[in-house]
Write a structure and sequence with these properties.
The protein is α/β, with parallel strands linked by helices. The chain has helices at residues 3-26, 29-36, 56-65, 67-78, 133-143, 163-176, 186-198, 202-209, 227-242, 262-269, 281-294, 301-309, 315-330, 336-369, 373-377, 383-398, 403-409, 415-431, 433-440, and strands at residues 40-44, 48-53, 83-88, 113-115, 153-156, 181-185, 214-218, 246-251, 272-275. It has four domains: 3-95, GMP Synthetase, Chain A, domain 3 (2-Layer Sandwich), CATH 3.30.300.180; 113-275, Rossmann fold (3-Layer(aba) Sandwich), CATH 3.40.50; 281-334, no CATH class; 352-440, Orthogonal Bundle (Chromosomal Replication Initiator Protein Dnaa, Chain: A). 57% of the residues lie in helices and 10% in strands. Strands 4-6-7-8-5-9 form a six-stranded parallel beta sheet, with helices on both faces. Strands 1-2-3 form a three-stranded mixed beta sheet. The longest helix has 34 residues, at 336-369. Mean pLDDT is 81; it is low at 1-7, 93-109 and 347-356.
Amino acid sequence: MGDRARLDSRELVRAWQGVLGRLELELNPHNYTTWLAPTRARSFDGHELVIEARTTMACDYLDRRMRVVIERGVAQGFGDDIRLSFVVAGESPLDAPAIDPEVPPTAAPRGAVMGTLNCAYTFEDYLQTSGNQLALQACLALVEPGDFATTPIVLFGAPGLGKTHLVHATACRAKDLGRSVACLSAEAFTNRYLGALRANRADEFQHEIRQVDLLIIDDLQLIAGKTGTQVELVNTMDEVSHRGGHVVVASERHPFELGLIDRLTSRLSAGIITRVEPFDWAERRAFIEHVARRKRGGLPGWAIERLSSVNAPSVRLLLGFINTALGLERAQKLDPRSLDGSLGGAVLFEASTAQAGEGQLLERVAQHFGVACEDLVGRSRNATVAEARAVAAAGLQDRGYSLPRIGALMDGRDKGTISTLARRGRAMLEEQDILRHLIAG
């Protein structure tokens, strides 16, 4: 190979690295790391760019799910009207089936679906944070090659934190891979089961739902107290798992707090139970920038700072804030006064919601320790009250409350005292599972 060929090869590597650099800024970090970072440009003849990926599934994913964004990056680095081909490392492009440009590509086989999916929810639009990392990785492991898949997966946390987004993204990816999916809320599962019983068609319902590759149940808390439905769910989960399938469950509260039958609690505890947490400040800022970029909108720095500073208790509420700001910007009416005015009602709602949440936590802790809530936040020196106070301080801090704010709730204690209380409480939480479940709700 001559000097010119070697130079061309180096230029190709540099050009592709430039494309990857642009795409890294645009894409969800997990998707970039998983699918694009391992690729390399194999050849370019001036018209066709051949991209090499590690596996056939990776090639398929890049072709079907990321082609548009890759083409946009390639246009900036290589020029317009470049044809892309994806090949597995070590294979010749000639090994792949010939593509007739006149014949549209055949869609990948899709699995049967029971229930309703919202495939607008995708992994690409799900921002990975410290509070949802385990939940995201566990769900991805069910639908990506080479990962360790665990079942069941139980996601729990307050409404509006992205649990439904994640389970629908998982269901849609499984469907696109040709797997059969049942995606139902607990209420829909109950209604279908009871309807089948009334119509003497329970066998048909059971045969259909127990054959799926992936069973998803959302809003598990809705079957609390419904013993017959819980028994049916246990039997369904067992059959799906025995056939090699997987189960994902979402709930607003930890399953141990729902008063479920022992058999169901036992099955759920055998997998991964993980809480989905609210964003912290940096994660709110990253989410705001991500949404604005996806909606092809621009927000000034002061507006991003203002939105980031609002401690929204849910992703859903934060998304409403962002849409409000983008709407004002497009109408050329975005200024600090108009933004604060538009957010006023939502901020008041957030404050009242947070207040209700902190009250519930304090009441639960007081009830568990058998003390009065007034004593817990007051000046009682009783040893049991002091233990309850420490656990409550740790629980509030875990929810993002600042030390001064916790001190204000606890009869004006200074932040040094609260910091000491929270450390004691966290040590107790680490030693006792029941306390961790207590504050997780």
